[in-house]
Structures are given as C-alpha cells and as structure tokens.
Write a structure and sequence with these properties.
The protein is an alpha/beta fold. It contains eight helices and nine strands. The strands form two sheets. A seven-stranded parallel sheet has the order 5-4-3-6-7-8-9, sandwiched between helices. Strand 6, helix 4 and strand 7 form a beta-alpha-beta unit.
C-alpha cells in the first residue's frame, strides 16, 4: 500500500486475517482496503451500485484472496446473505469496518429541505445499516481470536457541523452504538469508532470553497485528513491498540480544539 508515495514498513497483520469493509470502493473505503491487503489481510469489499469500481479495486489489491459482494446495507436480508457468503468462503471474520454511508448537503437552518425521506435514508444507511451488519456478522466475529469492529464515524457527531443535521445526528447515534456494543460484546469483540474531520475526496470537491476554507482555518494542523490518514487509524487499531474498545478515535487534525 502506498501513502504519500512511500511504502509502509509497519508489521503485517496476523496470519490470514479476514476483513470486511462495507462501502469499500469509495475514497476512504478503498484506502482502508489497500492498507489492510498490503498488510496481508483477505478483504471483502461491499458496494451499493458501482460493481465495476469495486471489481477494479479488487484487482488492485495486494494478494489474491479478496472478494466483492453486492450489499446495500439498508437491506438487512442482503446483509444476512453477505454473512453466509463469508462463512462459506472464509469461515470467520476478524475485522468488520462499517464504512458505508450516505448524505446530502442541506443548510442546517433550511428545515424544509431536510425531508423525511432524506432523514430516513441517512439513518437507515448510516446507523441501522452498521448495526445490521454487526448483528449479521456477530457469529463470524466470535470465531476469531481477536475480533474487532470499527465504525467510521465523523467529528460531526460532536461538533454538529456537517453536511446536514440528520447526518450529524446519525454519526452521534453510531458513536453511541459503539459505546453500547463495546460493553455488550466484550471481551470477545472490540468495538471502536474512527472519527474523521473533513476528508479530501469527491464529496469535499462539491462543497462551497468558502465553507471549506473556514473549516481549514479551524483545524490546528492546517490541513484536511486524507483517506490514508483514516486507513492508518484503522490499521493501528487492528495491530497495535489492542486494549482499546468503546472509544471514539478522532482523525481531525485537532478540529475540535478550536
């Protein structure tokens, strides 16, 4: 895996680690998949609609024991089919990264434009979809000797600053779920949130530049996160931070300090 044009020299994951990354073909998801595959993991990539993009990513990953599986996380029955596929092909699951998410830009003071339909879509994907995936994969995770669930959250959960009010609230719900399930699933399964600030990618390119500049000015480390920064946090939780559960790990350049 390449990050900032330099190859990682950190130690590999455990032998034959099996990792599932929902929404794995997106900007953050693909960086996570590449980092895990480079470290020796077998990666299952799920996608919502872009099969071609997911399969292209699969071909780019180091190693050859990876899979692509169509899984809209808002379809709990399809999520169950995913778990059956993983059980049949791999036998267990060591790492689940709940990365699939959805949002739409709506000004926070524009209450009428944040429709019931969009509120339901955001919560169904961002919160319920993550919960449903954990629920469906629990038995597979229990077959691991070192099971870990990582929920990709957002500092919007704390700051209340984000693409819309429902998105912020859905990430707060995800963080609450992280705390609850870390307690409920211990000691066999660890559960952690990785909470990025603004991440430079396709979505950020659609945001008003003046708004983005204000967010950058409020970031002590004077840059936005990259997908590779988020992947590095996932990797650290998988390999080094073994005594961490129920925590919300910010990857925000100090955004909440100002």
């Amino acid at each position: 895996m390449m990050e900032n044009n330099k190859r990682h020299t950190s130690p590999p994951l455990g032998d034959g680690e099996i990792a599932l990354v929902t929404g794995g073909a997106g900007g953050i998801g693909s960086a996570i998949c590449k980092r895990l595959a480079e470290a020796g993991a077998s990666v299952i990539i799920t996608y919502y609609s872009n099969e071609e993009k997911a399969k292209k990513l699969q071909e780019e990953l180091a190693g050859n024991n990876h899979s692509v599986f169509h899984t809209p996380v808002n379809d709990s029955e399809r999520v169950k089919q995913l778990s059956l596929f993983i059980e049949e092909k791999y036998g267990r699951l060591d790492l689940l990264v709940n990365n699939a998410g959805i949002t739409t830009p709506v000004a926070h003071d524009d209450l009428e434009s944040l429709t019931d339909e969009w509120i339901d879509k955001i919560f169904t994907t961002n919160f319920r979809g993550a919960f449903a995936t954990i629920r469906a994969c629990k038995k597979l995770l229990l077959k691991s000797n070192d099971a870990l669930v990582i929920n990709i959250s957002s500092v919007a959960a704390v700051s209340g600053i984000g693409s819309n009010v429902a998105y912020c609230a859905s990430k707060a719900a995800m963080d609450s779920m992280t705390r609850s399930l870390a307690r409920a699933l211990a000691p066999k399964i660890r559960v952690v949130s990785v909470s990025p600030g603004w991440v430079m990618g396709e979505y950020a390119k659609t945001v008003d530049p003046d708004f983005l500049q204000k967010q950058l000015d409020a970031t002590p480390l004077s840059r936005f996160a990259t997908p590779e920064d988020v992947a590095a946090a996932v990797y650290a939780l998988t390999t080094s931070l073994k005594f961490t559960t129920g925590s919300i790990i910010p990857v925000d350049g100090g955004r909440l300090l100002k």
